[in-house]
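Expect chain and fold; thus:
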Amino acid sequence: MPEHKVKRVLIAGATGYLGKYAVKAFKERGYWVRVLTRSKERLFEPGPFTAPALEAEDIDDIFVGEIAQPDTLAGLMDGIDIVYSSVGISRQRDGLTFEQVDYQCNRNLMDLCQSSNVSRFVYVSMQGADNIMDLAITQAHERVVSDLRQSGLNYRIVRPCGYFSDMGVLYDMAAKGRSFLVGPGHNKMNPIHGRDLAEVCVDTAEGDEVEVEAGGPDIMTQREAAELAFEVAGKPIKITVIPMWLARGLVKLIALVSTQFGDLANFIVTAGEIDGVGPKRGTTTLRHYFESLHAANSKNP
C-alpha cells in the first residue's frame, strides 16, 4: 500500500445499516475516512433497526455525488488507499433494479479505481450465493465479484450470512402481536449484527484472506428466531405460515407491478427455503439485539 501516516478509506453505502457501522469501525481503527453520499443529512440521522447516527468526528471528508452518475464523482479516489462498498438495494423505493444498483454502481466504483492509486477494494456480497444464482440480487452481486477477480485490483470479499436488520422485522411483527413466516421456518441461519460485521470488514481489509464468510454466534431456525422475538416482546406466540405455493404466486403478481419489488419478494421467499449458516465471527446474540429493540420500543411506544 502507499505510505501514508494514516491509511485513507472511501466508504460507499455509508447511509445504509452496515455502512454506518463501517464508518465507525474504520474510524476507530485509526483510518482517515471519506464517505460518498447523495445526502449529508442522512449520514447524521439514525438508521433503521439500531443503525447509529454518525457524528462529525466519525468522518474526515464528505463527498456528495451520485454513484450511478460517474460524471459527478471526479476526484472521489484522490488520496484513497482502500475502497469499501456495501452499496446495494435495501428498502429504496426509486424503482431501480439490482442490475442498476448492486452491479452497475459498484462497477462504476471499480472503473474509477483503475485510474487511481487505490490499493484494495473491499466488497460486501452474500454467503451461499452458489445456491441461489437464479435470483436477480445474487446475479448482480456475483457479477461484481467476477469483475473484481478479472480487474487486476487487489480485492477482498466479505460474505455475511444475513443481517440483524432483517431480524428486526421479526421483532416488529412480534411486538404487534402476530408474525408471518414464508414457509414453515425450518431453515437454519446465523445472521450477524452490523457492528460485528463492520469489524469483520475492517479485519478483512487489513488481512490476507481474500473471501471471508461471517455469521453471528447463534445458529437457529427462522421459526425459533420468531419465537424468541415474541418472548422478548412479552407477547404470546402467534405465527401465521404463508405456504410456499401461495408465496410464489404472490411474487409473480408483485413482479407484474414492479420489477424491483418482484425481485425483492423473490429473494425473501427463497430465503425462507434455504439455510444460511457460516463461521461464527460475531459476538452479539440475537436475544441481546431483540432486547435492545424492545428497550427502544418501550421508550417510544
About this structure: The chain has a mean pLDDT of 92.
